[in-house]
Each structure stands twice: as structure tokens, then as C-alpha cells.
Amino acid sequence: MTEAKPVPPVLSALLQLLRQRYGDRFDPEAWEEVQKGVEGLAEASAMLRSVPLDPGDEPFTRFVPYRGEG
User: pTM for the complete prediction?
Assistant: First the structure.
């Protein structure tokens, strides 16, 4: 059996808020999926915050030359 990761307090509070507002709309299996989704978003946002950016950094622009129709 795999050991469950501890849920950070901020995520716990967010999940509690969601359960208070929308608890009557989902069954227990659906709430597991909601929790997985919220945890995934939290992980992704933590990874984005970990990327160091300088004030002068600009967004990446993808250049694709036009080669005509065809």
C-alpha cells in the first residue's frame, strides 16, 4: 500500500472551502478526483514559481516562417 502525502494547510483549507460550498454536488469518488486535480494544480503552480525570472525577461515567441500555402 502506498503512503499518502501530507496535504499542506493551504490546500487543506481550500479543499474544505470547496467541500462547504459544493459538497452536496459530488459523491466521495468525485471528491477524490477534485482533490487530485487541486493537488495537481498546486504542484504545477509551485513548479512555475520555482523558475527564476529577471525583471527584463520577456515571453518566448515562437517564430514559424510562412512558406506559402500547400
Answer: 0.64
